[in-house]
Amino acid sequence: MKNLNRRLFVALLAALSAIVADAQQPRYQVGVCDWMILKRQKLGQFDLARQLDADGVELDMGGLGQRTAFDNKLREAAEADHFRRVADSLGVQVGAMAMSAFYGQDLTQRDNYMDLLADCFDTMDRMGSAPVAFLPLGGCGNDWTTDRAKRAEVVRRLHNIGEAAVARGKRVGIDTPLDARGNLRLLKEVKSQGIAIFYKVQTAVENRRDVAADLKRLGARNICAIHATSSDGKWLANDSTVNMLLIRQTLDQMGWGGWLFVERSRDTSMVKNVKMNFGANVRYLKEVFSVPMTQPQVALDSAGRPHDYVETIIKRAQKATDELGITYTREGRNVLNIISNRYFQLNNIYAERDSLKEAWAKQMGSKDARQRAEERCDSRLYRSHYDMEAALKMYLNDAQIEKVKDVMTFNVVSVTYDAQCDMIPTLTDEEKRQIMAWLKEARELAIDAESSKKKHEVFGKYKGRINNYLVRRGYDLTREREAWYERIKARGGKL
Fold this sequence. Notes:
- The protein has helices at residues 2-24, 44-51, 77-90, 113-127, 148-167, 180-190, 201-206, 211-218, 244-254, 274-290, 307-324, 330-364, 366-384, 387-392, 398-408, 412-423, 429-447, 452-472, 477-490, and strands at residues 28-33, 56-60, 93-98, 132-136, 171-175, 195-200, 223-227, 258-262.
- The protein is α/β, with parallel strands linked by helices.
- The chain has an 8-stranded parallel beta barrel with strand order 1-2-3-4-5-6-7-8, surrounded by 5 helices.
- Helix 16 (412-423) packs antiparallel against helix 17 (429-447) and helix 17 runs antiparallel to helix 18.
- The longest helix is centred in the C-terminal third of the chain and has 35 residues, at 330-364.
């Protein structure tokens, strides 16, 4: 009886320890794919992952080729134990087990596919890893999505795999060419809780899908892990096709948490530099996903607006928070929402103007209607102009607010001012102050302009005012400009 009680106590203690360990796990963890860092089933992957500051690795099962089994040296218990001990000693986890061979192997042509999956599950047990396996369907081609017979075979095999995974306490994440709706339909056909989507950002981007909307439609319970990189070309931080902050916000709202793996997004000018490429992408993902993002005080006024439009505005506003280096902070989220909301407000004002022009034209004629609508628009712009600046003062100092205004107007103030001073080195301090004052006045108007073309038109008018002022001060602008061009050429610059 005492031994029984002791065993129960040990089991309870182990269960409590597991619960505590789970509670201590961060919501998001960042890993690297061992086959992409050129360390497929090599012991050195753990030390390299630690150098890259990754939380873990997605460990591959090895090549397949014409063999009947994976080239899997972790099939040997002693080798797997050695790998596990090294990983543990370095604090690097195995976040998922991958069968990347199926990027090129057709699942429907492998009669022993269940043996291959059993080998993967056994290896996962030996490694003590997270219970997620990656199974790409790339080798099946794309015809299976429309070929009824082949699709039925894919579904049948995935059902068998899923049920085997459930029996082993695991989940298999598949990578398909389908969008969220297509994947939901596929999962419904498969009918197994053991199959989920191992979401690949690259696939969504290459098919020009809205990643955030696609994730939201797919739902948190259907996503077991994410390959959080895009095609090779640029690092994630420099890739305008991927709004990782919006993806983070979307996953937060969905209540999803788990592993984000770096697979690609290598800079093609240094594609073989593993440490530079994967180090940069790991740092960026950890910057975005490791910072606690509490609910901002300023709500985003996005209700009822098209999702694509909202995402475009957020990207535009994020240029300012990126410039300030605060995007991934609580203050940054509030500032981003304040700027975005101003863009939304401007859109509302101009949309109302256009609507009134059309409505009033029937009553008073198009000319009078246009004039009256423009006057109402100008009035609304004037009355709301300082709202954004007042709101920004809660989170930014004066210099930072100046930077926001510059970003919103393409830095025309500094570019024009520097050019004027370079063109006319003899400008007095008084003349410089006047030029800067007019440029900043133009900036206030340009901030509220309805398009980039209109913003530049505002600056164009003030540049004309500045030129007239300088001529009255006795400057020969033609001569000054010609001399300036010569100086630029002399120092090797271009016009």
